[in-house]
UniProtKB/TrEMBL annotation:
InterPro entries recorded: AKR, AKR5G, Aldo/ket_reductase_CS, NAD(P)_OxRdtase_dom_sf, NADP_OxRdtase_dom
The UniProt record lists the keyword Oxidoreductase: yes
Family stated for the protein in its record: Belongs to the aldo/keto reductase family.
Keywords associated with the record: NADP, Oxidoreductase
Residue sites binding substrate per the record: H113
Organism per entry: Cohnella abietis
Official protein name in the record: Glyoxal reductase
Residue ranges occupied by any NADP-dependent oxidoreductase domain in the UniProt entry: 20-262
Length: 276
């Protein structure tokens, strides 16, 4: 594999290039906090920003992208349709609202945020239409288990290109990861840093070995697995730190040791059992 850089991308099923590293803005307050975080990330070299209608900060993301001075087509913007917006017609309207808040003509990736029973197929049908109209460059899902993916792929016209899920050393989702890889669906990790639960002896040991932080070790592990990663931060030093992961490489045995930390431990909701 060629050496990874902050500009490295993965090719999605339709040939679109998606950056391997992005900035997540979940819980970033709309306005100055979001704008500053996104601008800091873009100045650092990030070229992917992940938001959602539910985050209520699309407006700040769009403003930062416009003020960055970087051409729009060089920045990969992801947003998502929230559960209360799901359904065919309401999803079409949801994207219109997201584009209005972002002040953009298109988004690069549009995701079904959660697999709402009885709605996610109709929601995805709307995504297919939006994709065919060129309003989104790629479509996919978030928090879909294998059963949801199999159900969706049984009737969809356009296979999901991305599945964004909770993925980290304590929740490696090996079966789902293998299924997505077999189907050509790019896995993307949210909450990759386990909400800061990095005080694990192995991570401390490896941080000392490589002269990095535990967070950098974990993010590098994601990248070497081939998982797209979007660590969330609004702190300038953390945004810089999370990007400083391209000047070292984890040895295979250390990759395996991190894999072995898995406890199937979620910090977020279970896609088979959520009530929002």
């Amino acid at each position: 594999m060629a050496a990874l850089t902050i500009g490295s991308t993965v090719e999605l099923l339709n040939g679109i290039e998606m950056p391997r590293l992005g900035l997540g803005v979940w819980r970033a307050e709309d306005g100055q906090e979001t704008e500053k975080a996104v601008l800091t990330a873009l100045e650092t070299g990030y070229r992917s920003i992940d938001t959602a209608s539910m985050y209520n900060n699309e407006q700040g993301v769009g403003l930062a992208v416009r003020n960055s001075g970087i051409p729009r087509d060089e920045i990969f913007v992801t947003t998502k349709v929230w559960n209360s917006e799901q359904g065919y017609t309401s999803t079409i309207k949801a994207l219109e609202s997201s584009l209005d808040r972002l002040q953009m003509d298109y988004v690069d990736l549009y995701l079904v945020h959660w697999p709402v029973v009885g709605k996610y197929k109709e929601t995805y049908r709307a995504l297919e239409e939006l994709y065919e109209k060129g309003l989104v460059r790629a479509i996919g899902v978030s928090n879909f288990n294998i059963s949801h993916l199999e159900d969706l792929m049984g009737s969809c016209r356009v296979k999901p290109m991305v599945n964004q899920v909770e993925f980290h050393p304590l929740h490696t989702q090996k079966k789902l990861f293998a299924f997505c890889r077999k189907e050509g669906i790019q896995l993307e990790a949210w909450r990759p840093l386990m909400q800061g639960r990095l005080e694990l002896p192995l991570l401390t040991e490896l941080a000392n070995k490589y002269g990095k932080t535990a967070a950098q070790i974990v993010l590098r592990w994601h990248l070497q697995l081939g998982v797209v990663v979007i660590p969330k931060s609004v702190q300038e030093n953390r945004i810089h730190e999370n990007a400083a992961i391209f000047d070292f490489e984890l040895e295979p045995e250390d990759m395996n040791r991190i894999d072995a930390l898995n406890q199937n431990q979620r910090f977020g909701a279970d896609p088979d059992n959520f009530d929002f």
